[in-house]
Each structure stands twice: as structure tokens, then as C-alpha cells.
Amino acid sequence: xxxxxxxxxxxxxxxAPSVRSQCWQKSxxxxxxxxxxxxxxxxxxxxxxxxxxxxxxxxxxEAWYSSAATRSxxxxxxxxxxxxxxxxxxxxPSEAIDDQELEVPQEWVDIPSWAADYYLAVQVTDxxxxxxxxxxxxxxxxxxxxxxxxxxxxxxxxxxxxxxxMSAFFLTYQYCQEAQTKQAIAPLPELxxxxxxxxxxxxxxxxxxxARLAVPFAVWGKxxxxxxxxxxxxxxxxxxxxxxxxxxxxxxxxxxxQAVGSFLAANSNHAWGLRNNFGMKDATVRRAKLIDLGMxxxxxxxxxxxxxxPDVNKQLIxxxxxxxxxxxxxxxxANIKLALLSESGEILQQVQARSQDNFVQLLRFxxxxxxxxxxxxxxxxxxxxxxxxx
Length: 390
Known about the structure:
The protein is α+β, with helices and mostly antiparallel strands. The protein contains twelve helices and 21 strands.
């Protein structure tokens, strides 16, 4: 790898053909062309800059996350972080021909645990043979001087507000480590596991092109900040968010699907239909999950109940699905719908609650091993879909 200073304020890093090839191979696991290209550019910048950094300037520099963990970042947002001792250096790659501004996604500025000390403006040349690091700024400068764009949720600094001397950057890092680089950030509001569990399949659907813009930032930021939720969101984007019912028969369950008794114990006045096991007394396995339709129900939660009745050889499973009110509610919201969908999304069954229904259920249906189906809960224009395979 060759690196040079130009004029002498910019750092130019040469990208070897083998590095380009390796980075491209790593990017092929992502779910969309946009996320693959984002991952490719970030991996390219990370590899060549980190190599230069460790060999020439800061030997203890290291990537914030392992290669596997970065997938759950680059699937959704541009940028990569390098740890240098106690400080974070943020690389923001861009293919823009000009250098009129530095544009930083809000996630890297307003999620408290993600915020960096320094943000480096990085350009990848159109032939991807060079990575050009042409300026830097601090978190405090982004917050105080940057222009926030609420449409694409970015902070932008004009070129006149960016320090364009990378040799000065390394001197600043070396001799001014006590300097105040960060602006105070308000903590994000808490997000319940129930809401997160319902958002993950929705935002993880490949049909949602810009997941980061689909919900308020406070919700999105908290979802991404939680490593477990972020990984689950990434897995859904990869088509891995499918619940395997055959595992249920072997006693393997995901944390969001709980024993029905745990809901009953929480409230002695729990839903009458849920307590009386209608149509499910012969089930081998019964599991329930809280469903939260958010503002549609003024934060009222529901209980989705799945019961399994396998045949002797476990090659065919009968499935029963019910929807119940949760907590002290006795009736379901009027007009809420429970539906069975095929793998392709075709409605196979659907039932709608009336004004005083204390539960609704689908007709019992059989599913062969290897088959997939979906269960959807919908109210007005809002819906949540759970994906299953036997």
C-alpha cells in the first residue's frame, strides 16, 4: 500500500486489487444492492486506513467491532468506527466527486454510545484505486455548527467549516487528547422489549427500503443501540427471521415466545378466552407472544397464541392460532384482523373481531415439514407479520 500527502493537507491511500477483491467478496452477504455497495466502500476504507494508521501513526488502533458484527451496522447506515485508546475516530466514506460538505448519518451523532470524537471525510475515487482522506471535524462541531436535515436524518458541515489538514489531525490526536471533542447528548427514551420485538420483523422486511427512516429517530436509535435487537433486525433482512416450529417440538424457543402460563400469572384477571384454552386442550405445544400495535391501540398490547398438534411421525403439524386481549382488557379492539397468509403473501384465512369479542381464532390448518406460512395482525393501515416454517 502506498500513501501520500497531497498539498500536503490530504492523505491518499492506494487500494491494492487484492484488497478490492476481498472487500467485494465480503459485501455479497448483504440483502440489497445499496447495502452491499455501502458495505464494500466501508470495508475498503476501513482496511486501508486502519493499515496506515497502525503502521504509521497509532499502533493500538483497532476496529470498534469485529468483521461479523459490522454487518449489522452497514446493512442500515454508512460509516465505520476505529478505536484509538479511549477515543473514537469515525470514517464517513463517500463517492462524491466534489468535497463541498461532510454528511454524517444521525445515528453516529445522536446515539450516545455510537458518538465519535473525530469524524473523517473520506472519498473513494471512481475507480476505487485510491481512498482520499481530505478533512476532519469533531462531534461538538457537528452538533453546534452542522446543519441537520430531517428528511434524510443527517448532519452536514460545509467545506469551510472542516479542518483540511490531516497532518494536523494526527498532531492534535497525539498532543491534545484531553481536548473537549464531544457535545452532550440527551439519552434516548427507553424502548420496551415488546415494542422492539414487534418492530424487528416489520423493519427487517426487505420491502422496507429505508428502515432507518420508517420510524421516529428516538425509536430507531434505541433499536440499533441494543446489540441483540440490531442483530435480530439484520437477520430479518437476511431472511433469517423465520420462526422454526419444528424446534418448538424439541423444546427450543426464542425469548419473545413465552409459555402461556407466564401471561396468566402476571394478572389474575387475564383474558377469559386465554385462560380457558378453547380449542387447544389437545395441543402438544402452546406458546404466546405480546403484540404491540403502538399508537393504533394507544399502547394496548395483545397476545398472539400459537398451538401445535403434531402427527405421530411429526411430518405434519396441525396449527391453531388465536388472538387475545392482554392485561386487564376483556375485549379485543373492534375490527382488528387476524389472518393466515401463504409464503407469497396470499390471504388463506382471515377473521375480524366484533365490538365485544374476547378472542378470535383461525380455523385449524395443517402444515407439512418444510412449508412456510405467515400470521398477520392488522388494524386500519398498520400490520405486524410473523413468519413461520415447520
